[in-house]
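Section: Multi-chain targets

For targets with more than one molecule, the full set of components is provided together so that the structure can be written out for the assembly as a whole rather than chain by chain. Components appear in the order listed by the source. The example entry contains four components.
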Amino acid sequence: MTTRMTQHLTTHELDSPPWLRVETTLMATARLVRQAFDCRLATLDLNLTQASLIAYVAEFGATSQTRLADHLGIGRAAIGTVIDQLQRRGVVERTPDPNDRRVWRVDVTDKGRAMAGDIAEVDEVLRAELRYGIGREERQALAWVMTRLQHNVDAAIDRTTHPATTVSSSPDPQPPT
Amino acid sequence: MTTRMTQHLTTHELDSPPWLRVETTLMATARLVRQAFDCRLATLDLNLTQASLIAYVAEFGATSQTRLADHLGIGRAAIGTVIDQLQRRGVVERTPDPNDRRVWRVDVTDKGRAMAGDIAEVDEVLRAELRYGIGREERQALAWVMTRLQHNVDAAIDRTTHPATTVSSSPDPQPPT
DNA sequence: GCAATACTGTATGACGTCGTACAGTATGTG
DNA sequence: CACATACTGTACGACGTCATACAGTATTGC
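Its structure, encoded as tokens over all components, is:
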């Protein structure tokens, strides 16, 4: 319930400890972004994960837990507890899937739908603030580089986990003209 | 000790759930990057935090715990346990600061110094892999945007925690010409 | 049909980090 | 000097996530 609020002065903006540079900045930034969202969502007594879940379900309708886990980028186990919490608060409900007795269809209640509205608003406001002074094309460039980066990371991880194979390196995402 | 290894297929590359876009990508990417580092460092039986600590101390010499915490972007409490672990493994040692009896000066042992070499190597290799296909100026642009973003996030968080003040918005970091 | 395999959600124990509260020590002010 | 305030490292309990193992259910191949 109580969401973290502190603000580590995050010294390393660009004094960057000698090894790690862009990568560090990336992770520090990500942490801050998450923190900002958590912080704003605290007024709704939600954290980012919970809010994302609600928003997703409100948008796309009843969804299985596994799919939710994938979409939010956390494990099946973890999503279970998140849903438990939200269900206990009456924001979300589980109904059995008629076609597959293993799966729960997770959906928002009316209360949840209302909450989704608030979430969207918070989101919109904060996003606007975050974008202040950053041009559209810069954002797109950022997104592109990060996609590329994700690609490389995936490859790197693969290479670590099964190092034998000579990896054919990737259908390059086209450069930003 | 056992470091996490799994690889959530992180579906949302750019199918991005309608709310949250660049921001989501950012956080997903960051998670992957951290994972990649952890994964590579697992051969040394280290995680990114531990490795960063060693590298930092090896580079800059004995450092107080609080300063370490700030530089690594985690709390004073957390850094304590990290140091405990490394100390138990004989990689790092605490000596009392002669000028201030509250503080420990944390430094690497010889074993630690050797380890720092390995870490630097792992780091260099992985960084090269991550940069594959990403130009220097793109990286710089990325760094700039993220710095700007950090700036905005800081402001946003401030605005949340003490919302009264009309924040004079920031000495703009100069655009990337 | 039946066995083998694959998948879903849950239980459990672990880890890293957080926030708070604390005791010990420095530092600044009267 | 004494006192108040600020800072350092630690103890503790909490949270979110992870990995693993499991039981229940689908699906596939013979």
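Residues 1-20, 165-177 of chain B have pLDDT under 50 and may be disordered.
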